[in-house]
Amino acid sequence: MTTAKLGEAVRRIEDDRLITGRGKYVDDVKLAGMLHLALVRSPHAHATIKNIDVSAAAAVPGVETVFTGADLQEQMGSLPAGWVLEDMVAPDHPPIAFEKVRVVGDAVAAVVADSAAAAADAAQLVDVTYDVLPAVVDAEKATQSGAPQLHEDAKNNVAFNWDVHGGDYSEAAKSAEVVVKQRIINQRLIPNPMETRGVVADYDIGSDHLTVYSSTQIPHLMRLLFSLVTGHPEHKLRVIAPDVGGGFGCKLYLYAEEIIAGIIAKNLGRPIKWTEGRQENYVATTHGRDHIADVEICGNKDGTITGLKAHIYANLGAYLSTFAPGIPTVLFGLMLSGQYKIPNISCDVTGVFTNTTPVDAYRGAGRPEATYLVERMVDRFAQEIGRDPVVVRRKNFLAPFKNGKEVATGVNYDSGNYRGVLNKALEIFDVKEFRDQQRAARREGKLLGVGFSTYIEICGMAPSAVAAALGAGAGLWESSTVRVHPTGKVTVLTGTSPHGQGHETSFAQIVSSTLGVPMEDVDVLHGDTDRQQFGTGTFGSRSLAVGGQALMMSLRKVMDKATKIAAHELDADPKMVQFADGVFRLEDIPEKELPFGDVALAAHSAVNLPPRMEPGLEETSFFDPENFTWPFGAHICVVEIDEATGETKVAKYVAVDDIGNVINPMIVDGMVHGGIAQGIGQALQEGAVYDDDGQLLTGSMLDYAVPTAEDVPSFITDRTVTPTKVNELGAKGAGEAGTIASSPAVINAVVDALKHLGVNHIDMPLRSESVWRTIQDAKEAQRAKRSAARKGS
Amino acid sequence: MPTTINVTVNGTTRTDTVDERLLLVQYLREVHSLTGTHIGCDTSSCGACTVHLDGKSVKSCTVFAVQADGSEVTTVEGLASNGTVHPVQAAFKEKHGLQCGFCTPGMIMTSVELLERNPDPSEEEIRSGIRGNLCRCTGYHNIVQAVKFAAMESK
User: Fold this and answer.
1) CA-nearest residue of chain A to B28?
2) Taking 80 as the threshold, does the pLDDT of residue A793 lie above it?
3) How far is A709 from chain B (nearest CA, A)?
4) Taking 90 as the threshold, does the pLDDT of residue A792 lie above it?
5) Are A289 and A362 in contact (CB under 8 A)?
6) Are residues B93 and B73 in the same domain?
7) Contacts with A195 from chain B: Cβ below 8 Å
8) Domain A477-623 class?
9) What is the span of the domain harbouring residue B120?
10) pTM of the model
11) Which residues contact B60 (CB under 8 A, 6 or more apart)?
């Protein structure tokens, strides 16, 4: 029987079931009479469907039925883009294609059988005749004249043009002493949560209730979108996200398979299960990043940065996924000031359709792309003017602030102390000592480099009115209910929907510390639209900053009512009642006390309540924040490069983050570790590769290099604390920090290791071959330069 | 063709008639309803399905159920004894070696066998020992700490 405090590394409640194999993921759901769904997917990236012959598939023993897109078209509607930008083209996206396929993996038929094996066997026998069309996979090439066109209404494959401008970049560049230009590729990534997606749909004809289990981050938003698209009434639709095996953004949408399984369940009146295979996941679940950026930074030789300009081709894939338009625009372009005072910023984004898997949020979502671009260009600028990258950063940092700071992109940061967080990182990591090691190592033919990344992110999604003005199609507030039972036990209902973040523990900590009840007396329920009032889900490092505040508000209301009941029971003025360690006491008569549990019982027995007070002890709150939160940090990475082979390893990694107040430091550290590993993965090894015909060459886990335990080191983590005033917890959000910071830290370290050879940029991912080639090319260039100099003299 | 097999799973021997192409992981999940063993890929890459077959770690997606005929299989559900979790399970909780929990059963089974082979592994040996198990949440940092802690606790 222990109560928990805020800031304590409480071990997780979730773990007891997860370490013993008693978690319940979607694929573990087994219902009586359940049928299995397999989807026939297009092997072509771009083709018209001429004919579909299902007769052989339908004849396979165990097969119940086979549906084509035409069969279900009327019932399924079109998958929506939930983020709408001005003048955006949002083409139809049928859950099952019926005229044209636009990406390898587009579903063209659905096979339902009494076993997964029979469904898979039969799916192979569906005979589809295609008329193959030319494909385009590169976003820049897709906009050029003569490129294959994906959608009739999207001229030159452009979905939108978006821009943000602050100050006057052209003027800044004209008067700057130095202008540095660079093309930067932010490669496409495959999110790879360890659990693929899965759906079980269960329809009750009598009540018209449809239940959809889905491995999703957004049960309520999914229900809303499902209802809007299919017309199934929202109040008779229940979405359950049970244990979810990771998301990282890719489970943040309404997907075709959710609709297909739901509609087929309605048609057949039997439960339908679909479990995504991993290779299927690689084509059917969204990807991340994929920017081609042309960037300029300008400034003066004393290190002052005066402007930044970027044009981005953002590859959106074949269709607009739910949040896709918001990622390379709002969550990217508005972030381009970083931690710096950059008075002139200009950013234009061209969102482009290609014959590839749709691109949407992947951990960090827009912010890693922005941070990579800013942090790379700050280093590039420092190198150009021959100055230390740390010195240049310090020179351009915004001064510490507690009450907001507007930057040139028009956004208003909440609080920040960028010098402070870098100073802390530099206390942990001795740069001078490293530079000595670096010189000594170079004499022995070993290449070492150090890279810095001082990042800012936008979290706490989101003030709904601001988000709506920026294109969001739904409010992004959060909700909570605190239900105190007669025995004093507490149930919390939250609209957030965790998938590894440990809300059952950190939210219980908040309850335990506020009400003084033991941790084991608190149960946090999430991920079931029939249990929880509407909520927005878990993404964008929002759950604590928004959902945690919604919880605080309900707890305050509960405490307010409980205090009145206690005062009434103790026959005192509520102002005289104090509360500590789970017990109400009177200030002047300390022996008169009432435990919280007794008050809970009194609230329910309703025998002696204050006049006109309603019985019960349950409160619900909805919190819409006034601003986003703006976590920040300073990461330092050391790399070792084998000059002979180009093999690059991260040797040391220091992360100092400022996410405001921390509820559970163990959970925060864990999320930072995982984030760093994903960023290192992007920097060194991950990357989705398509051939020109739109075939995904990295189409399985054998070909796409998810980091293993041998690919990353242990990490050193620390924090500074600059609380936000946006919520009373002072918490800013921690889920994405590591990923946002780490890719530029690694690449900056590699460039640092190679800069004596004249290298000033290298594109991710740094597979050994590309590093080796960069070294050889740089040496060749140096030789040519020396030779020319000799000839010249 | 259906084939009859005798397999001892977590100490209990059962006779089942299974399709020859049924994978061990499907046999455990579907026939025995032991859903703690997870399927994370289709290329034997991720290790989420790791169980012990006659005391050795195997990826149960790469073993046919019929190959387990006459063998003993231990899954994550069978690790606890007398209601007490295995020290490696306890260490994963203590050191926060899991987040979403999907890779965890396989990661624990691999770690248990690793420590049986090498009771006092270095960090390098731990990382090498679990390289066949992918985790996307933890960055492996706390998994390594958990295995170290379990080794220390067992001394």
Assistant:
1) A28
2) no
3) 5
4) no
5) yes
6) no
7) 38, 40, 100, 102
8) alpha beta
9) 87-153
10) 0.97
11) B23, B24, B25, B28, B37, B49, B50, B51, B53
